[in-house]
Write a structure and sequence with these properties.
Elements (H helix, E strand, L loop, with lengths): L2 E6 L5 H9 L3 E6 L4 E3 L4 E3 L2 H8 L4 E2 L7 H10 L3 E5 L7 H4 L6 E5 L7 E2 L2 H7 L4 E8 L9 E8 L6 H24 L15 E2 L4 H4 L7 H10 L6 E5 L2 E11 L11 E5 L3 E5 L4 E9 L5 E2 H8 L10
Parallel strand pairs: 1-2, 1-6, 2-5, 6-7, 8-11
Antiparallel strand pairs: 3-4, 7-9, 9-10, 12-13, 13-16, 14-15, 15-16, 16-17
Helix pairs in contact: 1-6, 5-8
């Protein structure tokens, strides 16, 4: 079996690593980002990929920069025939790309050339896309611009949030890679250039992407909320403090419209209805500052939310 170096960091990459191990590939090493403080306590912890690699008994490398000469020398000494990358977090230089005879393959969570970049899942869902997918591509020095080897389309269910889509795409990417590798090794795949194809960029998420603007339509806000759940979360402001909204649905309100952001109804056992720039939204799950996620009907009682209250004021 091919001698492979795997590069990945977050949860998305774990199923890919597991599938490579199960398929019997010779995993020479796993490369992941350095240990960093995580969570509220800022405790230094391992990346999900490092945890799984150690569990599998694999050698782990954690270079601060993959461009460092010492790391490139270490990689050359491992003599990988192929490097597989899944959400690693650093762009590979030409010196790394040129090491393996079968190149460097990337598992990307979109149907390239659509949604190149750092946040393809969130951006696709926030845009209201009905489908996305995974792409296995031959890496070059650009940002997700290399030739396409294989793709698998995945529907985005309307009631899915980004966490659910993430898990489905992680599994699909791992399965597609395992199907692709023997065909690639045998020379049975003709790489397809992305040149001339219609592309767009999935820009990294910024703080301003998280704030809910109630002047937007209910459909836009619904997609924003589910596209940012479970992380980093979409938020509004109530009584001067951020309030994350993690679950909502469109609601047909037949009464008089109000200023966007106004609470129109309190629904027992369900949540509260808010006016938007076009249509209304039923808020079902929220997370106040310093608290765990809770049903919106519990928030109503605990925080004295009333009809007529206006968010973001």
């Amino acid at each position: 079996m091919m001698r492979i170096v795997f590069m990945g960091t977050p949860d998305f990459a774990v199923p890919v690593l597991v599938k490579l191990g199960q398929a019997g590939y010779d995993l020479a090493a796993v490369v992941t980002q350095p240990d960093r403080p995580r969570g509220r306590g800022h405790k230094v912890s391992f990346s999900p990929v490092k945890e799984k690699a150690l569990e599998m008994g694999l050698k782990v490398l954690q270079p601060a920069r993959v461009k460092d000469k010492s790391f490139i020398k270490t990689l050359q000494e491992l003599q990988p025939e192929l490097i597989v990358v899944a959400a690693f977090g650093q762009i590979l230089p030409a010196e790394v790309l040129n090491i393996p005879v079968y190149g460097c393959l990337n598992v990307h969570a979109s149907l390239l050339p659509r949604y190149r970049g750092a946040a393809p899942l969130q951006r696709a869902m926030m845009a209201g896309e009905k489908k996305t997918g995974v792409t296995i591509m031959l890496m070059d020095q650009g940002l997700d611009t290399g030739d396409i080897l294989t793709q698998a389309e995945v529907e985005i269910p309307y009631n899915f949030n980004c966490g659910q889509l993430h898990d489905r795409l992680a599994r699909s990417g791992a399965e597609l890679l395992i199907k692709t590798l023997p065909l690639w090794q045998k020379g049975e795949i003709s790489p397809q250039s992305q040149t001339g194809m219609e592309s767009n960029y999935a820009a990294p998420l910024k703080k301003e992407d998280e704030k809910i603007d109630w002047a937007n339509s209910a459909a836009v806000l619904y997609n924003q909320i589910r596209g940012l759940t479970p992380f980093p979360g979409a938020y509004t402001v109530f009584q001067g403090k951020p309030l994350k909204i993690s679950e909502s649905e469109l609601y047909a309100f037949t009464g008089q419209p109000a200023v966007p952001g106004t609470v129109l109804l309190l629904l027992k056992g369900q949540g509260f209805v808010v006016q938007t720039g076009a249509g209304c939204l039923l808020v079902k799950q929220v997370q106040p500052v310093g608290k765990k996620t809770m049903p919106a009907h519990s928030f109503i009682n605990g925080y004295h939310l009333e009809v007529g209250d206006v968010f973001n004021n």
